[in-house]
Amino acid sequence: MAKTARERLARLFASTGQAGSFSAQLQAPAQAVELEVSGVGPVRLPVRAPAAKKLIAVARPAMFGRGEQTLTDTGVRDTWELTPDQFTLGGSGWTALLDDALEHFRDELGLLRRARLRAEPHSILVYGKGQFFLPHQDSEKHDGMVGTLVVSLPSAHTGGELVIDHAGESRTYRASREDLTLVAFYSDCRHEVTPVRSGYRLALTFNLLADAGTPVPEAGPVTELAGCLTEHFTTPATPRYGGRDLDPPNRLVFLLDHEYTQRGLTWHRLKGADAERAALLRAAAERAGCEPVLALAEVRETWSVGGNEWDDYDEDDADPDDHQLDDLIDDEIALGWWTDPDGSGGEPISLHVPGHEVCAATPSKSLEPYESEYEGYMGNYGNTLDRWYRRAAVVVWPRDRAFAARAEAGSQWALHELRARIESGDLAGARAAAESLAPFWHRTAAQSGLFGAALEVATCLRAAGTATMLLEPFRVETLTPEHAAGLAAAAGQYGQAWTRDVIDGWFGQQHRHGTAWHEWVEELPRLCDELRVAGRAEAARLLAAGTWHRLHDELRAWTTTARAEFRRPQLEQLSAPLTRLIEAADDTQRREISAALREFGDPVLECLMPVLRSAASRRTAGFDEVARDCGQRLAEILARPQREDGDWSIAWTGCRCELCDALRTFLGSRTQRTLEWPLAKDGRRHVHTQIESADLPVRHQTRRQGRPYTLVLTKTDELFTRAATARHTAETDLAWLTAVPSPGPPG
Ligand SMILES: O=C(O)CCC(=O)C(=O)O
Ligand SMILES: [Fe+2]
Predict the structure, then answer these.
(1) ipTM score here?
(2) Ranges for the Fe2OG dioxygenase domain (predicted)?
(3) Stretch (H or E) spanning 724
(4) Is 495 left (phi over 0), alpha (psi -120 to 50) or beta?
């Protein structure tokens, strides 16, 4: 099958990958360095045991970094350390040796020729018998740091080997007894020092720093790569699982091999093969009229891992990474950060990248995942293994599609760019660019914190339709009081009908909500106040109306739920947002809300009494009408005739089927307490459901004798205790209501 431009590009890079290694070694004569340690004096090489002991006497136990902290833990690292202020390095040949060594390492590690390496002394380490350093990665302590240089001093010892891993490859370095042994490696390589078995191991460590140089590739297939890029960006993409061709891709994401931190992600600090490939790609992008940035990607792969041989796999014992990977079932790549095209900084983004935009010289499966998870037999796929990787990438897009390519990633920059165009007077250009967001903006905007910027741009565009498109995807929960001024300005620009549409959209059905949005209502009074102050009372009204609409639905659902143990906590939970809504509403809306609340059944009290209690304790006004209505309702409840002793009738409707008719007759009887009802299975189930869902005080049991079995229904004493409790609650509530002072006129 003909290769796509993307595949050819990956192959071109695979052949450039030989250039750099993750670690490299060099030996040099010991005379080249003179080491002097304060409190000890000159240290003669090779180092003998008495000198090593003197060094230990002025050293301290080494620390190690974990996240933000620096700790000593001899279970992780057990060695003695001297800091740079305690020693000096010199000698006639030292500077020249180091310069030569750094040049050698720059080439061996595959840094660009233009880059300059520097070594900054970090420590002297002394390992005695049994001392070691467990596998770890060095943190990049400075901008510009790319790796570590270890200069082992000659000294007699066994053990104490330096083992360095990268991408599944491992190298072991032993120090010479006579010479200096220099080993350089990239910071993203895991490495360890194995326990010293005898003698002393001494090492000078340095941070390796790379200075910026213009990364120009020396020669190479730039033209061919540029051709691949052009073809990639002009050829319709073929979806992986078939189907119609898609539009030509907007991006090419080329995955790099080394790991980088956000801070370390700059062109001149790329390591090994990455440096060369990125420089080539950058030059090719330039030639093909494209723009490149560096990005951090999260990659998940799901592999099938064989069949029967894993049947007796024991999750606790086995290492998931021991599995033989068979087929790639699924993968997912998301970019979470990228740099600015001018290299000046970066920003968090969120972008899922389809497979037809991705390529790599090294497949993820040859790298070390940062997490693996084994799933036993999963039906369709047998056993599967999920693996997660963090990879860096060069992302390229055609310069003339840069705006959409960046905007789709949720880039704050895209909105800044729109604003800049508006400010520079290019309103038409800004409108056209904003319009180009339409195909994906509903996906993008919702997942990032762009509301404020979007409001501002939407207002300045002075194009109602485009403004709606920009603002529609947000959910109301992302609107905070900080956005009040922006919303007021937009409402002022486009008028009431537009504002209503947009706000209705924010409350719309497409934004599914659980109960998390209740928290948002906490801030509603402040938001509405600020809108009114800004002269946009109408916008405040619309927000309160939308909130009431949702709360009304929730109140209706829960007040009609018969089972108290489900209903009561839910209604109580609704009291907080309802309280805030009543605070936020204007007088007219308050009257409307009160009127609507009167239409609910008595269980609404389970929400309203907490509302009133919280309003009273916070001395907020505006609850008079609700309080009066509740008082009335409670009085009516108490005025109802009490259940007479011996009255076992239960009012109930049920559905209109024959079974429910029979059940209703039994329930309605003042005297009949039990019913023995021969009934087949389906019938019994229907009656069960009716009793349960209405929370009737009736016990139902099946006597498994005869054909059909007999359903035995018994009215329980709860019929009386419930009525008594309800009455008692009503009395207490009414007494409280009558006693509590009114917080005064609304305001
Ligand atoms: O002792 C060595 O050779 C390496 C020490 C090391 O890994 C470190 O200081 O981070
Ligand atoms: Fe280290």
Answers:
(1) 0.98
(2) 118-210
(3) helix 718-739
(4) left
Q: Would you say 268 and 115 are in contact if contact means Cβ atoms under 8 Å apart?
A: yes
Residues 6+ apart with CB under 8 A from 294: 260, 265, 266, 267, 278, 338, 339, 392, 393, 394, 395
Between β-strands 358-360 and 252-255, what pairing exists: parallel, antiparallel or unpaired?
Answer: parallel
CB-count burial class (<10 Å; 0-12, 13-18, 19+) for 216? exposed
The DSSP element (H or E) to which 371 belongs, if any, is strand 371-375
Nearest to 573 by CA among 546, 543, 551: 551
Which positions ≥6 away from 538 have C-beta within 8 Å?
491, 496, 499
User: Would you give the distance in Å from CA 203 to the centre of its chain?
Assistant: 41
Report which ligand 1 atom has the smallest distance to the Cα of 138.
10
DSSP string, 447-510: GTT-HHHHHHHHHHHT-HHHHHHHHTT--GGG--GGGHHHHHHHHHHH-HHHHHHHHHHHTSTT
| pLDDT at residue 693, rounded to an integer | 87
Ligand nearest to the CA of 62: 1
Residue 564 per-residue DSSP state: H
3-state secondary structure of 78: strand
Amino acid at 388: W
pLDDT for position 217 = 45
Task: Provide the pLDDT for residue 113.
Answer: 58
Nearest to 657 by CA among 632, 630, 696, 685: 685
Q: What is the distance between the alpha carbons of residues 251 and 273, in angstroms, rounded to a whole number?
A: 22
Nearest atom of ligand 1 to the alpha carbon of 191: 7
What b/e sequence results for 154-188 when a residue is b if at least 16 CB atoms lie within 10 Å of its CB, and e otherwise? bbebebbebebbbeeeebebebeeebbbbbbbbbb
Give the CA dihedral 12, 14, 17, 18, nearest 10 degrees: -100
Helix, strand, coil: what percent of the chain each, to 5?
45, 25, 30
Counting as low any pLDDT under 70, the low residues of the chain are 1-2, 14-20, 65-72, 111-115, 212-220, 241-242, 306-323, 376-381, 446-448, 509-513, 741-747
Residue 118 CA to residue 422 CA, distance in Å, equals 46
Q: How far is the CA of 45 from the centre of ligand 1 (A)?
A: 20
Nearest to 725 by CA among 735, 714, 733, 736: 733
Q: How far is the CA of 606 from the centre of ligand 1 (A)?
A: 66
CA torsion through residues 262, 264, 266, 271, sign: negative
SS (H, E, C) 218-240: CCCCHHHHHHHHHHHHHCCCCCC
Instruction: Measure 83 CA to ligand 2 centroid, in angstroms.
Output: 15
Nearest to 612 by CA among 638, 633, 592: 633
Residue nearest to atom 10 of ligand 1 (CA): 138
Token reading at 124: 């002297």
End-to-end Cα spacing for the chain = 76
Show the tokens assigned to 678.
């021969």
